[in-house]
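Margin note: ligand = protoporphyrin IX containing FE.
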Amino acid sequence: MSISALLSVPNDCGLPPILLVAALIVLTGIAIRRTSQQRIDVGRPLRLITKAQGESPQSATSPICYRVQSPQPYHGWSIRHTKPLPYRAFRYGPKYNITMGLRTIDRDEWIELDNHFPKYHADKAIRIQERGDKCIKTHPDAVPAAMELLEELANYLPARYPGLFKRTAVGIDNVWSGESFNILQRPLREDPMTVCARLIQDDLALLLEQPDGTYRLLAGCILLAGFWRLSDKFGMSLSDIHTSGNVPSFQEKLERGMVKFFQRIKTDTMYGRSNYFIQVDDSLPWSHSIGDEDDPDVGWSTAEQGKIIHHHWFRSERQSLRRLPRTRAICFTIRTYFLPITEMAEEDYVPGRLSSAIRSWDHDVSKYKGRAKYEAVLLDYLDRKHQDQVRNGLDLAREEHVRQYPW
Ligand code: HEM
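Resulting structure:
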C-alpha cells in the first residue's frame, strides 16, 4: 500500500493520518529488529540452510544461511596413543622473512586433540579456578558469538572425535572426563567461553567487526598463552593488540594485509598459521621467566640469562582463523605445542635448521623473542647436536624430500 493510500484510510483511533503512518513505520522497525534478534537467539540450535557458493564479502551484521558440515571422524584417534603433531615451523636463514604466513586448512582439521589432552584439561581447570575472569572474558555484545562458537564445538567434536565426545539432546558429554555440558539451559552454568575452554586444548578468541570496520577482541579464553594476558588486550582492535606488544615490523609489513584479510574472510574457508618461541622454563600456562603474571610490566629483560639447556623449551602455536556463519564473528584458535629442546633436538635436521633460523633473526625479532637470554647456551648445544647428526651420516641433501613446512 502506498503512503498516499495509507493517508486516505479512515481510522477510528482519532489520530491524524500522518501520525498513523509514523506509528506504522516505528512498529515495522521494531518488528524487523525483533526478527533479526531472533536470528542470534542464543537458544537456537545451529543448523541452518544452504549457502550459495562464492559468498560475497558482507558486513559483520548481515546474517547468512550456511549449512554446517560435520567433519569426518579422525580414524584411529586415541587419548592414550595419538601424539601431538610435530610442528617445527622454523626455516633456514640467512634471511628471516616477516609475512602473515597464512595457509588454508582442511575444515575437518579445525581442532587438533592428542594424548596431551588430560594435561591441558587439568591445567585449564586449575587456571579457571584460580584466575577465572582474568583469563576468560565475554563482552555482552559478544555473547551471541560465544554461544555460536560453543554450538559449533558441540557439533564438531563428537563427529570428529567420537571416542572422546558424545552429542546429547541438550549439549555434549566428554566421556573420558565424565563432564556433561548442557548448552541449552539458560542461564548457562558458566560463561560460554569457559565451557569452550574445557572442551579443547586450544585457547580461543572472538573478534567482532565494529561500525568503523575494525575488528575488536570481545571474547576470549586465554589460559595457556605463556607470554601474553587477555586482560591486557581485551577490547583492543587487531592493530592495537599487535602494536601494544611491539610485534616486529607490524606496521610496515603486516598491518595492511591483516586488516584487509579480516574483512574478506569467508565462512567456508579456514586459515592457519604457525609460529615458534623459545622459553626458558617449563610452564605451559605462563612463562614465569618473563615475570610474575600479576606484575603490571612483564618482559624478557627480567629473565635469567644462560640457564642450562634442560630449562630450554620449544613453544609453537598452531593458530586457525574462521568466520562463524551466524554472527559473523572471527574465531581465532591458538593451540600451543610445547616440548623440551633436548627432546626435539633428537629429530633429524632439527638442530641444524633451528640454529640457522635463530641466527637469521634481525635485531627487532631477536629482542621480541628474547634471544640474548638463551642464545649462548642454546646455539652451542644445537651446533653440537647438528655435528653429531652429520657425523652419524645424516644426508643434508635429502631434507626437502622428507619434510615440508610447517613440519
Ligand atoms: C592474520 C592474522 C594474524 C597474523 C598474521 C598475526 C601475526 C602476528 C605476529 C607475526 C606476531 C608475533 C609473534 C608471531 O610470530 O606469531 C603476533 C603476535 C600476537 N598476536 Fe597476532 N596475528 C594474527 C591474528 C591475531 C589475532 C586474531 C589475535 C587475537 C587475539 C592476535 C593476537 C596476538 C597477540 C596477543 C600477540 C602477542 C603480542 C604480544 O607479544 O604482546 N593475533 N601476531
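Residues 108 and 124 are 24 Å apart (CA to CA).
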